[in-house]
Specification:
By secondary structure, the chain is an alpha+beta fold. The chain is 32% helix and 28% strand. A hairpin with a 2-residue loop joins strand 1 and strand 2. The termini are far apart.
Amino acid sequence: MLREKGIHLTTVHTKGEVKASIPARKERGQDAAARAFKLVLASLEDSKAEDTVSIDIAGKSALGDYMVVTSGRSSRHVTAICEHLISDLKDEGFGTARVEGLEAGDWVLIDTGDIIVHVFRPEIREFYNLERMWSAPELDGETVH
């Protein structure tokens, strides 16, 4: 018999019944996304990331639930922030995130599935200005001509 909070197994042996309990699985869906989001923000703060902005993209995009944009002072700082975040995510059971751009350290994208994290050097961030693009108001179909 399976239960939501923990899995309880009943095994029948020739000499009777033995019950075993397996620990509950980590939450899925919104709970997991919210937990991962808190972890991402804490890890970025711990790594001294600068100008961190979070954008709720749930319902706006199929890419994920949250987008986080932040900066490091140099390529070395960007790389260190990302390596720390990747390690924290893995240590907390969120698996291995997909990572792009870590070698150069100018703009690193970390995709956890629920959260997309962009870590930039300041001048690269200013050039692409992702926050403005994702924070733009939604337009009605009638507004566009």
